[in-house]
Predict the 3D structure of the following.
Amino acid sequence: MLRTEALVKEFRGFRAVDGIDLEIREGSVHALVGPNGAGKTTLFNLLTGFLKPSAGRILLAGRDLTGKRPEQVARLGVARSFQITSLFPQLTPRQHVELALQSSTALGWRFWRSEEQLGRFSERARELLNEVGLAEHTEVPAGSLAYGRKRALELALALALDPQVLLLDEPTAGMGTEDVDRTVDLIRRIRTGRTVVMVEHNMKVVAGLADRVTVLQAGRVLVEGPYAEIRRDPRVVSAYLGDGDADH
């Protein structure tokens, strides 16, 4: 579904991504892990058009995405969430999702459109909010939502684009145990019929969700495979997990 070929990103001579060949299988959950500075965020930004590669190619179902802008990448079927939550605090979850649904139509991003015109998206907005567990929070200001529910709303916004590929940037970062468990359950539900790529530091989350794991180090692929295999690879234990985590 998503593939990179010899992908490189240089910053003033420093290679943050150094010749990465990556294959994301259709319908899978694929985790990108690695120590700080491994190149995970840079790779994510390349995949979604926020950075342009210095060399190499990015392909979505065989279609070349290389060098396309973020909004073009999104319209072609790749949606992402961000590590840092960014919402309109006074708008309700329903209004957020209606605007996201509107963005892919002829209405575009026209914030002055009336409630009546946006109303055509209300039913679908409520369906998406129900899908992410926010059915009881559709009409409250987004700024009043608990952190975990804000992240759920961001997922609803990404799903509103009806993506082929959903990229999640540290979806459980900053969460307590209860929110982490809720988010893991949510990702399990929404993965049906979609391909999911996630950057995640919580290895228990990776173990519970990922069909395949790519471990990055210094901008290169260190090892790749099912979690059960890579967690015991001596290179992974040394580079990232640490001896104390090898059995967890």
